[in-house]
Amino acid sequence: MDYTVIDHQGDRFSVRNIYCIGRNYRTHAAELNHEVPGQPFFFQKSIPALNTAKEIILPIDREIHHELEIVVLIGKNGENISENDADDFIHGYALGLDLTDRKLQTKLKESKLPWLLAKSFKGSAVVSTFQSENITDDFWLRINGEIRQRGNGSQMIFSIPQQISFLSRMIPLMKGDLIFTGTPSGVGYIQPGDLLKLGVGEQPIHFLSVR
Ligand code: MG
Question: Tens digits of per-residue pLDDT, 72-84?
Fold first, then answer.
């Protein structure tokens, strides 16, 4: 199976790694009762987590939270990237959902175990089509017409260039890597039958149904 995303020109990129930063908005760290981290930390989702469809199929007997995030597509290989050079490695920006089995994540956290199994089920890395422009306006998630999450990249604790620079000093980045750049507050459960709309400013850019 081919796991690809589509850029602003309609070109397909094979996804290589899916990285996600944790606790990158003060408002979200606060709602989960976490300290704001002094340096960024990351976890990964598996490749079969990638979901570019218009549908979320919930795993059986698990309760899943939405986390609305700006997602960056890395366009070329690089390591030890400086913050100033980070933009050169970005091929596009999308909106996505870092879907999370929150109860399992809490259990894993309490046992000091990795989050992988709570973060990486099939279809748990939702991404829209990529665009070339940075998402600088307010971005939002509506569920059944109601605003549930709203954020702005300027509220990030670690900016996108800081994330790319930090991560690339620990792990070489590859063309086709995705980085989920953190969620603002308002995370909550999704249920079968929900209709999700993700957008920026006045512009809806991705629609999903949940079953
Ligand atoms: Mg997240």
Answer: 999 999 999 999 9
